[in-house]
Amino acid sequence: MTAAILPLLIEPQQLHGFLEEYTATPPSEQTEETPETPITVTVVDICSEQSYMAGHVPGAIHLPVPGLVSGKAPAPGKLPALEQLERLFSHLAYTPETHFVVYDDEGGGWAGRFIWTLDVIGHKHYSYLNGGILAWRQEGLELEQKQNTAEPSSPQINIHTQAIAEIPDILANLGKEGFCVWDARSPEEYRGEKILAAKGGHIPGAINCEWTSLMDADNGYRIRQDAEERLAMLGIRKGQKIVTHCQSHHRSGFTYMLGKILGFDIKGYHGSWAEWGNHPETPVEESAL
Fold it and tell me: Is 47 annotated as catalytic?
């Protein structure tokens, strides 16, 4: 049993069945069809600590949110320093062969931010639990309350810029055919009615699609089945070069991940509006949707 069978988007029942079989036959005991280097599956819980302790996917390791961001003003959501990333992945016993299955308790924001981070370090083995712990609980699946830990590893991490958008990248492409900025913030932030930086409004030409509008609250906050059609109606579709952002690249962690699931050519602007809206030379539009 290897992680190669795990899809990018995995449903709770699928993961439950896989983990039962995986636990029964761990990598150390794999024989037939086993790769030269056995693949380890690590389930990562990026819920609140209260949620994790109340009940999590069996075997899941809790990852506190602060490890994913720099926390430094004026753009606290930017990628943290390499040393911080190495501590984070050491906590998860990272190896190049590890397959991460990640979830959260909010429909995918922090899980998506983790997947973006994996892309940034060039790691391609991962899955998102559709709907996270909310969908898992809705299905009535087994919960565990004990705290899980892993034997720390010593990862050597490199940054791959292909998944990262910066101010110069956006400025160089504004107005070009086939370039799209996906603003995942609320309509009030987009219009400049709610201002969370020195400047309000949005990046010129950006398309607003608020992140939670693509989650199905009646179905355990899974991704809406018509998400691609909804985006296409707004003008966000395959074939474009897409950059997504929010205020701190948390909400746009979800939209980045959704773009990957839908096969989009997408990057995450980790500075997001906290950087753009506080920069003295970035252009801004204030207009109704």
Answer: no
